[in-house]
């Protein structure tokens, strides 16, 4: 009737998530991934949260889980669409986190999903290895080796990690490198081998004991599966190759990069 007021139910406007909501959801996702809270992680992912959301450093949930060695979380994230080669603001991928922290299982999972290190990150790990040898930080070096970084690297002078360990008098480091298979008969660009360096030592009896006469090669027990090439002397990154070409006479540089033997000067 005319005297009766018609009540019309008004629909409430749809509330769209604000920037603060998104930031909070990202925080919950990253926290669950970093702490290994699988049940919370699954619940958050069921709410269509962007799995590749990052913190202020550009690190995703996969970065954090990889750094902590959380194999189950890493697998869940990959299965739900995490980008395995997503780089943070420092240019580091989840694989970098797993390798640096020595999480072998996580490294394997990431690599099977297509994860690779960028050239810059690979070169960074090479520099870290040389620094650890220089400082005698054996545990740090072992973490990188366990993480899949090959110790078969050479610097721009053709020196292996074993050369450096002997030069800096790092006995435990030299013993470790020999045990995992580094060859003491491979020369640098001048032709000097780790064997030669030890023979020239007059006072370091401990180092001489590590390389007794007639036995100059490591056991190869850990490197036999890792080394794709037959040579146990080492390999060069692209940046190291550039330094070799810039620093060494052309005939020597060519021989080094081709893996040919260099006669002592």
UniProtKB/TrEMBL annotation:
Its domain of life reads Eukaryota
Please provide the record's keywords in A-Z order. ANK repeat, Repeat
Q: Which GO terms describe its biological process?
A: protein K6-linked ubiquitination
Q: Name one GO molecular function term.
A: ubiquitin-protein transferase activity
Reply yes or no: does the keyword Transcription apply.
no
Cited InterPro entries: Ankyrin_rpt, Ankyrin_rpt-contain_sf
The residues bearing each ANK repeat, given as ranges, are 57-89, 90-115, 157-189
What is this protein identified as? Uncharacterized protein
Q: Which organism is it from?
A: Cryptomonas curvata
Source taxonomy lineage?
A: Eukaryota, Cryptophyceae, Cryptomonadales, Cryptomonadaceae, Cryptomonas
């Amino acid at each position: 009737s005319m005297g009766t007021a018609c009540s019309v139910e008004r629909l409430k406007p749809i509330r769209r998530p604000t920037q603060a909501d998104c930031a909070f959801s990202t925080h919950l996702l990253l926290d669950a991934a970093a702490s290994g809270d699988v049940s919370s992680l699954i619940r958050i992912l069921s709410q269509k949260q962007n799995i590749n959301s990052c913190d202020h450093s550009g690190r995703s949930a996969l970065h954090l889980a990889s750094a902590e060695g959380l194999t189950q979380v890493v697998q869940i994230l990959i299965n739900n669409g995490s980008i395995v080669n997503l780089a943070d603001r420092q240019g580091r991928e989840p694989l970098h986190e797993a390798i640096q922290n020595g999480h072998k299982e996580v490294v394997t999972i990431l690599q099977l999903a297509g994860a690779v290190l960028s050239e810059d990150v690979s070169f960074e790990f090479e520099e870290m290895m040389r620094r650890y040898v220089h400082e005698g930080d054996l545990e740090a070096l072992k973490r990188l080796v366990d993480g899949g970084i090959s110790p078969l690297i050479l610097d721009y002078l053709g020196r292996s990690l074993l050369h450096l360990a002997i030069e800096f008098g790092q006995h435990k480091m030299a013993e470790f490198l020999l045990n995992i298979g580094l060859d003491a008969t491979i020369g640098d660009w001048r032709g000097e081998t780790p064997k030669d360096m030890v023979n020239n030592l007059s006072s370091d009896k401990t180092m001489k004991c590590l390389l007794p006469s007639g036995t100059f090669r490591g056991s190869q027990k850990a490197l036999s599966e890792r080394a794709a090439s037959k040579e146990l002397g080492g390999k060069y990154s692209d940046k190291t190759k550039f330094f070799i070409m810039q620093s060494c006479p052309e005939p020597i540089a060519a021989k080094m990069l081709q893996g040919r033997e260099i006669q002592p000067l």
